[in-house]
């Protein structure tokens, strides 16, 4: 199969885990079950077919470095689980806009982006023949996400939107229409980790409903120590994040219920570890109460990379099949806020059918 040429917006912990993962699974055997992978072969593409060709950053200590070196630059704190050889890709300066909140500029070591333009970014994407642009901007980057979405369109790239700004799931239809008119696929929004807080919460809620219990209230509180959680200490940047995480759970319940879901605190010494506390109060036979309490601890960035590695290949298949606009099948399985919310078992079947060519989108 031909290679998949990928560019990254943001070279933080998530990018580090993804890049390490492409090396870690480079020789994964297709005829075995491989820990950590949902698909070794995804529609004919192996993980080794992914090639990183460009990356954009605002951290002046990452700009100009080879991508293989930039993933280790502070404040990145993703644990090393694979060596990464020199990739021959120099990190390019990105645009700032609202991609770096005022309280994060020192942490991100932000450079002066006065000379960075849309034209320069689009030129880099075209010159490197990028096919898939993966967006890893921080939560709350409303304007910056839309800037890069337009860059993807102008450069002729598919977009994988890993954060909670609604591009693929834009209910106004503006952004899906833009990608459709450009003949390009868009996959979004807000990555759902492999075994993370959202998928665990959804599974437990689905269990209660399927077994005839009434869910009276639920909450999900998340703690973490990386820059993602530091960025989310400002509530004004969390509007779309709270919508995304909350709808991922409440979309399964056919009635309104008291719910609180989202980031709760930034604990620096946790680094890239994320801790989730879940509570679900239900009533079962005889209106007798049942309370479910759960605690989940994960390394956040590798947990999301296990899904992104499939989304990149899904985007390339969509390009191969000349599918334009919003994809439905894989996003319903991979994102917290996809264009269509369905139970995860159905989303998985949609994904497998789509890979096999049995579903159009």
β-sheet strand percentage: 15-25%
The number of E-state strands comes to 13
Major sheet: size, sense and barrel closure? 7 strands, parallel
CATH class identity of the largest domain: Alpha Beta
CATH architecture of the largest domain, by name, is 3-Layer(aba) Sandwich
Helix content, binned percent: 25-40%
Number of domains: 2
CATH fold call of the largest domain: Rossmann fold
* Helix-strand string: EHEEEHEHEHEHEHEHHEEEHEHH
Main sheet: which strands, in order across? 5-4-1-6-7-8-13
Average predicted local confidence, pLDDT? 95
CATH superfamily (homologous) name of the largest domain: NAD(P)-binding Rossmann-like Domain
Ends distance: 21 Å
Query: Given the structure, what is the number of helices?
Result: 11
What would the principal axes of the Cα set say about the shape? globular
Computed Rg: 20 Å
Explain this structure:
The chain has a seven-stranded parallel β-sheet, with helices on both faces. A four-stranded mixed β-sheet has the order 10-9-11-12. The chain has eleven helices and 13 strands. The protein has 361 residues and is an alpha/beta fold. α1 (13-24) packs across α9 and α3 (118-127) crosses α4. The protein starts with a strand and ends in a 6-residue tail after the last helix.
